[in-house]
């Protein structure tokens, strides 16, 4: 008699409570990484998230996996903010402006240095979200230049560097105290991007490849 193969099991979706727990862990980790750095104890993250240690390790087998998830989720939300602005108004410069301010809200400047110090920068998940982020910024900048909104002598690297530097707390200050001023300084930078340019920029616009060089 022919052998009857068992029907393949359907892949089960994570339960809603499991997804909520994962989101709580990522949110708590993001907050604590910003406040204390990437070496904060995982049991402290679990406590802030309101879950047990076992739940943290069930979702993230090691610290690198959790840090990577936090960085990727922050970059995804920053990209989503720019995409939403572009969909709502069709205004490329407004989308660029939304991206810059969303990066500050997400504390991306405090989190991204962890990428080079804690785990593989070439992990596929990180590469994918980084390419989406860089691609979106390049797209909105090209559209803003074509519309005469953006000065032609700036590049993607200019925006990424300024967004990181202007939203990063200066040495000796706390992250929370500097939040009052980050958006003010970022808006000054954004206004300086508008065309027509009032001055000539020294040097050449940094590219994404320039930023990746050691």
What is the helical fraction, as a range of percent? 55-70%
Strand proportion, as a percent range, falls in under 5%
Global mean pLDDT: 83
Beginning-to-end CA distance, first to last residue: 66 Å
How would you name the CATH homologous superfamily of the largest domain?
Tetracycline Repressor, domain 2
CATH topology grouping of the largest domain: Tetracycline Repressor, domain 2
Overall number of strands: 0
Shape: elongated
Number of helices: 11
CATH class term of the largest domain: Mainly Alpha
Give the CATH architecture of the largest domain.
Orthogonal Bundle
* Radius of gyration computed on alpha carbons: 21 Å
* Largest beta-sheet characterization: none
- Structural class computed from helices and strand pairing: mainly alpha
What is the number of domains? 2
Contiguous runs where pLDDT drops below 50 for at least 5 residues: none
Order of helices and strands, N to C?
A: HHHHHHHHHHH
InterPro entries: Homeodomain-like_sf (IPR009057), HTH-type_TetR-like_transc_reg (IPR050109), HTH_TetR (IPR001647), Tet_transcr_reg_TetR-rel_C_sf (IPR036271), TetR_SbtR-like_C (IPR049445)
Keywords: DNA-binding, Transcription, Transcription regulation
Protein name: TetR/AcrR family transcriptional regulator
Organism: Streptomyces actuosus
């Amino acid at each position: 008699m022919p052998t009857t193969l068992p029907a393949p099991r359907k892949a089960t979706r994570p339960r809603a409570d499991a997804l909520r727990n994962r989101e709580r862990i990522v949110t708590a980790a993001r907050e604590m990484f910003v406040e204390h750095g990437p070496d904060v104890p995982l049991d402290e993250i679990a406590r802030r998230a309101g879950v047990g240690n076992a739940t943290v390790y069930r979702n993230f087998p090691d610290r690198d996996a959790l840090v990577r998830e936090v960085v990727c989720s922050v970059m995804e939300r920053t990209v989503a903010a720019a995409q939403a602005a572009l969909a709502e108004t069709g205004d490329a410069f407004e989308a660029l402006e939304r991206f810059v301010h969303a990066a500050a809200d997400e504390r991306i400047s405090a989190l991204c240095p962890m990428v080079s110090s804690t785990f593989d920068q070439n992990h596929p998940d990180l590469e994918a979200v980084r390419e989406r982020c860089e691609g979106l910024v390049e797209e909105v900048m090209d559209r803003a230049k074509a519309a005469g909104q953006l000065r032609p002598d700036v590049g993607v690297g200019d925006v990424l560097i300024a967004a990181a530097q202007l939203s990063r707390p200066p040495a000796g200050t706390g992250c929370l105290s500097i939040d009052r001023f980050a958006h003010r300084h970022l808006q000054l930078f954004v206004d300086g991007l508008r065309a027509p340019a009032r001055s000539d920029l020294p040097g050449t616009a940094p590219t994404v490849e320039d930023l990746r060089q050691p």
